[in-house]
Design brief:
Length: 426
């Protein structure tokens, strides 16, 4: 099911003035330093995402060379680890066009998996919205898209990114990124809102004992997607290096840079995470609206999004190797203007994180996210709703921080799921 396009929520904030005593003004937090720290953390996060993607690529090589339940499990475990630093980058997406224009290559969802590989008969054979709904590239070395004949005898990164990604201008034709790889490692989750994730067998890659056919081509696709993921993350890590285009764009004007930071926090909090990724699925009780739907890893992805939002505000990040990055922060900047608003926002960020950690703990000990949002599961629904409420509430304080900093007008992503919930059932 395709989510409705995000609505735009315009926020117009009133100007505010605050005159600091000269002694305090001398020690004031420098907005340029806040933005530099934001850039440094972005570079570190995308570099960590790249490191984990390279580890995933190696695990995939081992799976392809020696298909077994052990090598498949190792690749799956490495995929889950790779999601952690990437999800913590998502607050950089909104407000940074370089990131937003690129993001679909690595994290687009939901996807129509019939484009890629075999699917269960319950998936159906056609869709009014997608001509490539059951194209099954892995099983078909030649096919047409529109009026163009495609030679897919060899499945390459170029085929995935240049031909298949959003084929026919259809957003659900997701051929690249984390979720295409996830599908190829787990297969479809056919359990609805019941227990269990995807159960693809390792023999789907075993050319000597092949299940479901085309094991060599399935391996080609998986390797091509993994190669692309590494390449795409390498590109983005370079954009946030000191001489990178994303870094230069946000550093050029510190005041705009601060606005970008708050835009990213607010848009991810409200429209994207609380709305499109969480409230929509909860309203519909639909496991197809689950972000990491094949692996049942969604609660971890949502938690790491929330952690990333908090890190933008606090200006702190701990790298995979334990290195701590900390510097001038939005929190300090807001506190100098209005200590009460900083305390309010910090408290709400903490409350949201508590709700997200509670959801993740439930995901590890009681039931997975797709079960939590199931119809009639009052307790599970309430756990998810508490996290949504925290995200919505912290967005209100983000708006207050924008006002305190006298940043003028900014735009945050909205969501029909939050703003016009009745429309999602039409």
């Amino acid at each position: 099911m395709i989510s409705k396009p995000l609505a735009r929520l315009a926020l117009v904030v009133a100007s505010a003035t605050f005159i600091l005593p000269s002694a305090i003004a001398l020690a004031a937090t420098d907005p340029a330093a806040v933005v530099r720290n934001y850039v440094n953390i972005a570079h570190a996060k995308y570099d960590d995402a790249l490191i984990t993607a390279k580890a995933l690529d190696k695990a995939i090589d081992l799976l392809i060379a020696n298909p077994s339940e052990d090598t498949l499990k190792a690749a799956r475990d490495t995929w889950i680890k790779a999601r952690v630093p990437y999800q913590q980058t998502e607050a950089y997406r909104f407000g940074n066009p370089i990131v937003d224009d690129w993001e679909g290559k690595v994290n687009a969802w939901p996807l129509d998996e019939g484009l890629i590989d075999y699917v269960d008969k319950a998936y159906g054979t056609e869709s009014d919205e997608n001509e490539q709904y059951t194209l099954n590239v892995i099983a078909n070395p030649k096919f047409t898209i529109g009026s163009k004949e495609i030679d897919a005898t060899r499945i390459t990164p170029e085929l995935l990114s240049g031909t298949l990604q959003e084929a026919g201008e259809t957003e659900s034709n997701v051929a690249t990124g984390y979720h295409a790889i996830e599908f190829l490692l787990w297969g479809q989750d056919l359990n609805g809102t019941g227990p269990g994730a995807g159960t693809r067998p390792a023999t789907d890659y075993d050319t000597k004992n092949c299940t479901h056919g085309n094991c060599d081509r399935r391996a080609q696709y998986l390797k091509a997607a993994s190669t692309l993921l590494v390449s795409d993350l390498d590109y983005m890590a370079k954009q946030w290096a000191p001489d990178g285009e994303a870094a230069k764009a946000v550093l050029a004007d510190p005041k705009k840079g601060i606005s970008t930071m708050l835009t990213g926090m607010g848009s991810l909090s409200y429209g994207e995470l609380a709305g499109e990724r969480m409230k929509l699925g909860l309203l519909l009780h639909d496991p197809e609206e689950e972000h990491d739907c094949f692996s049942d890893n969604t609660y971890n992805s949502h938690l790491n999004d929330a952690i990333g939002i908090d890190e933008v505000y606090t200006g702190r990040y701990t790298r995979l190797d334990g290195t701590k990055i900390e510097g001038a922060s939005l929190s300090a900047l807001v506190a100098e203007k209005d200590a009460a608003i900083d305390k309010e926002l910090t408290g709400k960020l903490d409350k949201t994180l508590d709700a997200m950690h509670a959801m993740a703990k439930r995901g590890e000990t009681v039931e997975k996210y797709d079960q939590m949002i199931g119809d009639g599961n009052k307790e599970g629904n309430a756990v998810v709703q508490a996290a949504i409420d925290g995200l919505v509430d912290q967005t209100k304080s983000i708006q207050r921080a924008v006002s305190a900093l006298d940043l003028g007008e900014i735009e945050l992503e909205g969501s029909d799921s939050l703003d016009k919930p009745d429309t999602v059932f039409k």
